[in-house]
Specification:
Oligomer: single chain
Helix content: 25-40%
CATH topology of one domain: Dna Ligase, domain 1
Strand order of the largest sheet: 3-2-1-6-11
Shape: globular
CATH architecture of one domain: 2-Layer Sandwich
CATH class of one domain: Alpha Beta
Length: about 450
């Protein structure tokens, strides 16, 4: 983790350079599409939200979108890159189109991706203050005391955020600096992912002659853009229906406290339609978009859809199916995804939060009737979420399919504090327990 700590610090420095230059690209690498936004920062103290929980190094930066483009994703499955050259070409295509619209060349990019088997950990630690006021060093020291679990080889830490500070018995502090007390404690949320997934993405971006200035989980940034302030404060879950995976993030007190992913998404529904109706995937996608749904009514038995084909056999290509038949193919897969989501929410203890709002977002959330079905299966209030409006965003990029890209823009402008924003002494890096054991040995013998 020491390497990753340094890598994250380097990326944070890159982000500062990019913001000083005033322009940065946002890249959402998904299974079905790659979205690229070019942001211009004006450096003004234009508030994008409540600045109490923006990162220590963030500074408030107003921004506007000056370029936007999407292209069909290639070489990505379950949110992870499986064909490097194809993904590289797709990234270049989206980036060039966005740069052309912006009329400017971009060197720095902040990326997000889904999948990669995310795992959440809750950490906590305490520090004796002896009646002194809390300094930045104390915050770094208490964070460094968190006992890092052995999260296994081949995994890396993507986010490590303090979500709550307490001084003596006063909890719920977002910034304890300057306050006086006897004991400072911290609760942290740590998210680990499959290391190879993030290495492939970083390598791909490097091959596109770009500098990586930050990386985030799609589930996290979708929550930032789709949950309104009250939901982030009181407790809510964001379900991001992507093409290859469905991301889950839970927020409380404006911080993400849990994330997970289900390795199924909209592409699996398309493939079910393709197999069920014996049509090519491209036709299946069109049928899903124009006629799909999960709630059949009596009328749907009589509504016939031309399902077509391109075999050249006139009789075969003139086939029709009822809309009820299409819904009958889609519903079981949607139910399966929602059942998996419910299991993850139960495991996270979501039902113990004071508010249990669920927000559906992502391209797959646009299936008609999904919110009603989700409400029945998840047993909570469910609403459809659209990302927040940001300056300059084209109308075509304001739908739920752009929740990650918009959230990543907000993350770029206002990152929350992470472990690597603080000068933690070298021997305190969470390199499992080996380094600690060596230090203890040196100090005591």
């Amino acid at each position: 983790m020491t390497d990753l700590y340094q890598t994250q610090r380097t990326m944070r420095q890159m982000r500062k350079i990019a913001l000083q230059r005033g322009v940065v690209a946002i890249l959402d690498v998904g299974t079905s599409k790659i979205a690229c936004l070019v942001l211009r920062f004006d450096g003004s103290a234009e508030r994008l939200g409540d600045d109490v929980d923006s990162g220590a190094l963030a500074g408030q930066s107003g921004f506007r979108v000056i370029g936007a483009a999407t292209t069909r994703s290639r070489g990505v499955r379950f949110g992870e890159i499986c064909a490097m050259a194809e993904t590289e070409r797709a990234i270049r295509t989206a980036l060039q189109a966005a740069q052309k619209m912006a009329g400017i060349r971009v060197d720095h990019v902040i990326a997000c991706f889904s999948g990669a088997e995310p795992r959440s950990y809750g950490l906590n630690a305490e520090l004796d203050l002896e009646g002194q006021s809390v300094s930045e060093g104390d915050v770094a020291r208490v964070m460094s005391r968190c006992d890092i679990p052995d999260y296994g080889a081949g995994r890396e830490v993507l986010h490590a955020q303090p979500v709550n500070f307490a001084i003596d018995h006063r909890s719920g502090l977002s910034d304890p600096r300057g306050q006086i007390g006897n004991a400072l404690s911290v609760d942290m949320h740590m998210l680990t992912i499959d290391a190879s997934a993030v290495q492939h993405l970083a390598h791909c971006i490097k091959r596109c002659d770009l500098e990586l200035a930050g990386i985030a989980s799609s589930s996290y940034v979708s929550g930032i853009s789709s949950l309104v302030e009250d939901e982030q404060e009181l407790g809510a879950a964001c379900i991001d229906f992507g093409g290859g995976s469905t991301g889950i993030s839970i927020f409380m007190k404006k911080h993400m406290i849990y994330t997970d992913a289900v390795r199924m998404g909209g592409d699996h529904i398309t493939s079910d339609i393709s197999m069920g109706l014996q049509v090519p995937p491209i036709n299946a996608e069109r049928l899903k978009t124009f006629y799909g749904g999960v709630q059949a009514t009596g009328v749907d038995d009589r509504e016939m859809i031309e399902i077509g084909g391109d075999t050249g056999d006139y009789e075969h290509d003139r086939r029709t199916a009822s809309r009820a038949e299409l819904i009958g193919i889609m519903r079981p897969r949607v139910e399966e995804i929602l059942e998996e989501v419910r299991e993850r929410l139960d495991a996270a203890g979501f039902d113990h939060l004071p508010s249990q709002q669920i927000v559906l977002t992502g391209g797959g959330s646009q299936i008609p009737g999904l919110d009603g079905l989700a409400s029945r299966i998840l047993g909570q209030q469910v609403r459809l979420g659209r990302p927040l409006r940001v300056h300059g965003l084209p109308q075509a990029a304001t739908g739920p399919g752009f929740a990650s890209a918009v959230g990543l823009s907000l993350f770029a402008a206002n990152p929350q504090d992470e472990w690597w924003d603080f000068d933690i002494p070298a021997e305190k890096y969470p390199a499992r327990s080996l380094r600690r054991a060596v230090k203890w040995f040196k100090d005591n013998w």
